[in-house]
């Protein structure tokens, strides 16, 4: 959907600025980097550890948002002469710049992840590295962890390897541009192959019963002094690009499980009672769910543009995709009982975004050591026990969710009393005590999700309704009730 500028009164803008400042305080978001860290970043930018291998001949390209400068990944895709495909996937080598236990490393352990707010970000590493010397910017020769995945003609990975190498990206592409080029037939083969490989990998994912939700993203941007709030419908290229990252995360997990030390991203399967509950919800929404069809297969069959399907997908996202965890182990004798990730339906780890997430630097080092047949560096082993607990303290998800809440409330501040079209996407009937007269509604214009109450009739999941805005207050203490609607009886 196109972005729509949301014109706010000066009072709403002031309330939003104050709310963002409070949010940063509540999340203990770091402020400016200390001078010693900035000095260390400048020094590292001019003297990184360089690898012996030179892979600058590969015409790599990146796919990211047009404004992004912290580019973690670059790829090059080709057909193999004997059939199948080869994927080169370069990941920024942050360890080439960040010395263990130095000022940069100590600061990164405090920050854990990059925090994104609509009016700016709080980076994990100083911009001299994250948007400069360590980033895979076009026409910049940088050290990287270069993955090579060989795939057969069906999209199954037959071999993976990673090593340090100098790389040089040739082009900075964006999602919409890549989608247009592929659809119009103007994309060069290394880019066009993303559709072939991505589609095959999606079929492999479906065969192993993995889950990919395709709900539109609620997106907040800040441009030219104005906030914009919209739904961004996922493009096909989003999914294809994600498959390359997933391929690498699964390969990394297999390497660590085979070699000994490792850190995994795990997720439990949904409890049976949740599946049973969702079957009842599907029945109420008129969605046919045959007994032998798994919920992963059902989700892939749904259309997020259908309001009843979208309501079901909203329920499924919370019920069937429990919170993920990190689990580390030092050797084969201490591999955790739970090694799989339910949504991915395979062992998996985070290793493709080291500029923006602390754990990825460690996972990358473990994989390079495994491929070299060497013991991991002592600094990696020393951090393994504490790393899962450190990552649980990351506030990236909270920053995203609560930023959207604040912008929604500010956008609607001047429209209290107005009546809007909406869709019921959740009810409180599963709460204790059950309550079908409270829940959530989703509006298309503006792109807002908010709480709703009904005085005298039950809310029906997936129903089209008219709602009156009773409250929109960025400063309201309850984040779920910053926005409150009431059902309008017509």
Protein architecture, described:
Helix 2 (35-46) packs parallel to helix 4 (127-133), helix 6 packs across helix 7 (236-259) and helix 7 (236-259) packs across helix 11. The chain is 36% helix and 25% strand. The protein has 14 helices and 18 strands. The protein has helices at 10-26, 35-46, 103-111, 127-133, 175-184, 189-207, 236-259, 272-285, 295-301, 307-319, 358-372, 378-384, 387-392, 396-412, and strands at 60-64, 73-79, 85-92, 115-117, 120-122, 141-151, 157-174, 217-223, 226-232, 262-266, 325-329, 340-341, 346-347, 419-428, 435-443, 448-453, 464-472, 483-487. Strands 1-7-6-3-2 form a 5-stranded mixed β-sheet. Strands 14-15-16-18-17 form a 5-stranded mixed beta barrel. The protein is globular. The longest helix is centred in the middle third of the chain and has 24 residues, at 236-259. It is α+β, with helices and mostly antiparallel strands. A hairpin with a 2-residue loop joins strand 8 and strand 9 (226-232).
Task: Report a brief summary of the structure.
This protein has 490 residues and is of the alpha+beta class. It has 14 helices and 18 strands.
Helix content: 25-40%
Please mark out the parts with pLDDT under 50 across 5 or more consecutive residues, or reply none.
1-6
Radius of gyration: 24 Å
What is the first-to-last residue Cα distance? 30 Å
- Secondary structure tally, helices: 14
Shape: globular
Strand content: 15-25%
């Amino acid at each position: 959907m196109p972005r729509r500028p949301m014109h706010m009164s000066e009072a709403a803008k002031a309330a939003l600025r104050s709310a963002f400042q409070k949010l940063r305080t509540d999340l203990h978001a770091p402020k400016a980097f200390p001078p010693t860290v900035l000095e260390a970043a400048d020094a590292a930018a001019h003297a990184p550890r360089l690898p012996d291998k030179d892979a600058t001949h590969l015409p790599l390209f990146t796919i990211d948002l047009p404004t992004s400068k912290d580019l973690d990944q670059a790829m090059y895709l080709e057909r193999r002469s004997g059939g199948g495909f080869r994927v080169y996937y370069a990941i920024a080598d942050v360890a080439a710049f960040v010395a263990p236990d130095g000022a940069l490393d100590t600061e990164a352990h405090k920050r854990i992840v990059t925090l994104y707010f609509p009016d700016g970000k709080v980076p994990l590493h100083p911009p001299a590295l994250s948007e400069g010397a360590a980033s895979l910017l076009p026409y910049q020769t940088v050290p990287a962890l270069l993955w090579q995945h060989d795939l057969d003609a069906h999209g199954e990975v037959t071999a993976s390897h990673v090593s340090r190498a100098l790389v040089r990206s040739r082009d900075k592409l964006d999602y919409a541009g890549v989608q247009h080029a592929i659809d119009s037939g103007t994309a060069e083969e290394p880019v066009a192959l993303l559709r072939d490989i991505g589609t095959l990998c999606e079929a492999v994912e479906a065969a192993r019963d993995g889950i990919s939700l395709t709900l539109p993203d609620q997106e907040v941007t800040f441009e030219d002094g104005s906030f914009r709030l919209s739904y961004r419908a996922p493009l096909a290229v989003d999914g294809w690009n994600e498959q390359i990252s997933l391929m690498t995360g699964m390969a990394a997990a297999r390497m660590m499980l085979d070699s000994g030390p490792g850190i995994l991203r795990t997720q439990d399967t949904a409890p049976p009672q949740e599946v049973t509950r969702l079957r009842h919800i599907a029945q109420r929404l008129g969605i046919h769910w045959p007994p032998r069809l798994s919920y992963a297969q059902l989700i892939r069959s749904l259309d997020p543009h259908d309001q009843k399907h979208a309501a079901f997908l909203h329920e499924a996202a919370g019920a069937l995709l429990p919170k993920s965890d990190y689990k580390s182990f030092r050797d084969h004798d201490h591999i955790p009982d739970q090694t799989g990730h339910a949504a991915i339906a395979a062992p998996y780890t985070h290793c493709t975004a080291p500029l923006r997430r602390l754990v990825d630097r460690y996972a990358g080092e473990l994989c390079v050591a495994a491929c070299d047949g060497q013991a991991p560096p002592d600094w990696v082993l020393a951090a393994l026990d504490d790393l899962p607990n450190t990552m649980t303290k990351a506030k990236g998800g909270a920053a995203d969710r609560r930023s959207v809440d604040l912008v929604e409330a500010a956008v609607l501040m001047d429209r209290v009393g107005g009546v809007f079209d909406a869709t019921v996407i959740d009810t409180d009937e599963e709460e204790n005590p059950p309550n079908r007269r409270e829940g959530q509604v989703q509006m298309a214009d503006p792109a807002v999700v908010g709480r709703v109450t009904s005085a005298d009739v039950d809310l029906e999941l997936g129903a089209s309704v008219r709602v009156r805005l009773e409250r929109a207050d960025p400063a309201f203490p309850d984040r779920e009730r910053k926005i409150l609607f009431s059902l309008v009886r017509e």
